[in-house]
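Quick one: pyruvate kinase from Tetraselmis chuii, structure tokens please.
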Amino acid sequence: MGFDPSCELPTDMQSILDFNTKKPNSIATRLCCTLGPQSRSVEVLEQLLRVGMHIARLDFSWGTPEYHQQTLDNLRVAMRNTGEMCAIMVDTTGPESRVRNPQPGILNFVAGEVVTVTTDAHAIPSAN
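--- reply ---
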């Protein structure tokens, strides 16, 4: 199953499916890819650009500014290497509640227990 590139298509359909076309405005669909740990190397970004990535999305709800800067630097190198341009979308979601547990292991919660939630990054998680 899947797309068979050898099948006969009307000329106008083929131009839509041909990602290598350089005709302006020939592709109506834009491909947006969220970049993360598995998709931020120069090599992977080059592959994504070659197969049609038009927009690179950065999710600022996690990661450090340095992490995202390195991803952007890698994207710039990949664009230079491939000659393909790519827009950048930054997802700057508002405050979110996240459970942070830098200690190894799992925190177990029992119904009826009191749970303290803090924004103190130095607080040590405990199930006691």
